[in-house]
């Protein structure tokens, strides 16, 4: 059985799978689990890392310099074996590097470093993508954590909401057969808030590409809630399978290819074209709040 990497501090305990550098557990000091359990009958993930694409591309193929390469949904990282690079009591780091095997699907010399750190009541997830190729490297990156819904001691699922830090006036996007629907839909955000209900996800994920916010609160007016921040990730998705016990809060750089897209990966909307010897850092911070401990804030 694969041994999990465990980090902890006085407030939180996290477990990470070295196989995919995937966060599989985040518990409070009094034992409340905050992560989805990865039930394979519902959704086998818990918090996959998405690289070098986010979402899907037509026929699971990308075009690079005129040649086709096969890349499944969310790319290589969700199926990759990372190397453990560091383990400290409250911090761990993992690395995924290019190899002859990865070049069959993605012909670039890359390095992806993923780090998890616990500081006070927060989990900091950071990732650095480095281009060690001699050519410009097109890529996307995303976090995909699935948190329990309902949260511990937070009442019914119907009492939960997502509240954004700023007014959001743009529309939202939806998938169509795994790709990006061409239509812009009326946003589910009203007065900075989405009241969560299963029917919102009947048509798949809700995606937001023009957010003013870089922070949201997920929870209800009682029990545990999560304050979630992100950096360098301009796109956001909220997703669950209707009726399932999780909500994925997914900050992305990039998204599925639009319906009808046939261009090069470097031309795909949402792609970062990283120069040789350059790198890009991404970050997501999850802070655990408790209405009892915080005086009902």
UniProtKB/TrEMBL annotation:
Keywords: Plasmid. GO terms for molecular function: carbohydrate binding; isomerase activity. It comes from Agrobacterium larrymoorei. GO terms for biological process: carbohydrate metabolic process. This is Aldose 1-epimerase family protein. It holds the Pfam family Aldose_epim. The keyword Transferase does not apply.
